[in-house]
Amino acid sequence: MTNQDENIVGRAQRLAQAEKSAWSEIYEAARNDLNFLSDEQGAQWNERDYKARVESGRPALTIDQLSKFTHQVVNDIKQNTPTIKIIPHSGGADIETADVIAGLIKDIEYNSGADEAYDTAATFAVKSSIGYIRIDHDYADDGFEQELQIKRAINPQAVYLDHRSIEIDGSDALHGFVFENIKVSEFRKKYPEKDPCSFWEIEQKEDVTEESEITIAEFFEVVDEKRRIGLTEEGETENYEEGKQYVSERETSERIVKRYMLSGNDVLDETTFPGIYIPIIPVYGEESWENGKRKLFSLIRKAKDAQRMYNFWKSVETEILMNQPRAPIMAAEGQVEEYRDEWLSPDKSAVLRYRNVDVDGKPAPPPQRLMPPQTPVGIVNASRMAVDDIKATMGMFDASIGQRSNETSGIAIAQRKAEGDIATYHYGDNLVKSITHVGRILVSAIPVVYDTARIIRIVGEEDEVKSVGINGEKMEDQERSFDLRKGRYSVRVITGAPFTTQRQEGAQFMADIIMRQPQMSQVFGDLLFKNMDFPGAQAIAERVKKTIPPQLLDENEGEIAPDPEKQQMQAIIEQGQQLIMQMQQQMSDLEKRLNDKTAELQIKARSEAEKAQNERFKIETEATLRAKEIENESRELDLKEIELAQRSRELTARAAQPQDTAQAV
Fold it and tell me: Which of 78, 86, 135, 664 has the fewest CB atoms inside 10 Å of its own CB, making it the most exposed?
């Protein structure tokens, strides 16, 4: 080992030991979370309680209530596919080149299986509080041209990132490690001139065999290299050349990412990673800071005690039921032995016979049916409360996982589900922030990896694939070549349904319009079938296109010569595109503000709903009281009418008495 190798390995070992110590608490809690969700016996129990119940022969059940909640959050994240958007920033950047870079990134994602990398990192973040995404580069299948790759980290415990990094996406990290265990035989094949020595071991063990495993480390480190630059008369900046005249010159530093493969004794490989960022991207779960120290929590971390209580009470309930009598009938000895078969299968006998005396010949009462096993109500309620505690600690309720709760209206169900989504929103939001940094790393590395004139494949907004020439190379129908080595670009990530779903929604929208206005089928009937996925849809679209008036088709579709009106319309469209470009940044800001206001608006909406409900209750109460008053007044009026009628009859009777007397006289 040379002195230089010794310095690099020694520095890396000291940094790795410091990172291992700094991350130990978080990683230990993460391992416990993953073990809690595993199928290992007793994983969801207190170890002492589980051992005591098993050794005494009592049931120790595990009825997992947490996995369905983690699956719900992870699958919600998977449905909202993140899309990396590229925005021109400065230095000659333009919107067309930005679209090419975005299409190249989408092609990199498809070739790399980036969805798996994103989903794996999100799953680890939800279940154990932390996951990772990796960026790498390698040669293409044929030739010497390289391509970027997005890889998943299947063991977050084998990754250490600079613990001094405070950004949620790790963009400010200055070093990082990825550890790998390989067999000694494999090590000798890869590095035949190096001695197999584990990175964590200073001295070689004597009992190492070809089948033994050793640890090697992939070490990334950011360094600043000094260089001198000059400003030419044409206004361009370039590396300083001795003897050349410059308008101005100065010293500057260039950020470079060094990449080493290390054993315990040697530098196995040394390269420079393209770009300026450590290509390890963390995906955090719930993050908080305490006295300047990062704390990470999984979705289940605070619900584990409630899960243990649920398992305990269910086990006690089972134990009680097991210990209660199982025989449904009680009879004196000697009463039913002669009719044993009938009593063992009472459903096959029309009459159950028994002797009215016991085995001693003494009179005995008829056999009696026993009460079925009874479960104590308190234990049942305790297990139900444990389930409620699980939901409350995670902020997720029945409506959040598609189950019926105590809500009765669709609005109430939607509001309860929205509350559950808000309670777990930060998991998906943290993934979006991390994927945004994935975009930054790719944008930073693309000018270095894709630095030659070549034809590349890009994927468009609607998943259409096409080839374009870059850095001086052009396709036959390409107006200009796109230089990916110039300009600065910003990254923005949006989430939403994938294109397949958007296409289905578009087809449904067009079908609804045609249903209400059948004449519109002559305007875009071909587009309706083009956006459908059933067999033969594209053939129908081509046939319907032939019935569309030529003036409604694009020039290439209808094969007609351009007319002045169309050219004028094209000019208007181009002006609109320019306005759209100017508004993109404003839309980005508005989108961020909208996202920030969403939670506040929902809280206000709930407050207004409660206020309206209280006002309604007040009005209904006042109306009820007023109705009672009117009812009482009506009752009093009825009594007065009855009283007046009675007095009227009395007066009539009195008036009639003198006449009767006179007639009698």
Answer: 664
Tell me if 170 sits within 8 A of 294, measured CB to CB.
Answer: no
Residue among 313, 284, 312, 319 at smallest CA distance from 59: 319
Angstrom CA distances, 269 to 5, 140, 142, 145, 397, stand at 10, 20, 23, 20, 52
653 vs 64, higher pLDDT: 64
CA distance 95 to 581: 8
With CA atoms as reference, report the closest residue to 170 among 28, 31, 19: 19
**Burial track 369-398 (b if 16+ CB lie within 10 A, e otherwise):** eeeeeeeeeebeebbeebbebbbebbbbbb
CA–CA dist 562, 554 (Å, integer): 9
Q: For all residues of the chain together, what is the average pLDDT?
A: 84
Strands 175-183 and 213-231 turn out to be antiparallel
Structure tokens at 113: 């299986």
Q: End-to-end CA distance of the chain: give it in Å, rounded.
A: 155
pLDDT tens track for 404-414: 555 555 555 55
Report d(CA 1, CA 436) in Å as an integer: 40
Q: Tell me, what DSSP letter sits at residue 512?
A: H
Instruction: State pTM to two decimals.
Output: 0.70
C-alpha span between 124 and 551 (Å, rounded)? 55
Helix, strand, coil shares of the chain, percent, nearest 5, are 50, 20, 30
Domain locations in the chain as residue ranges: 65-156+278-299+427-492, 302-324+374-423, 334-365, 497-560, 573-638
Nearest Cα to 101, choosing from 370, 588, 492, 365? 492
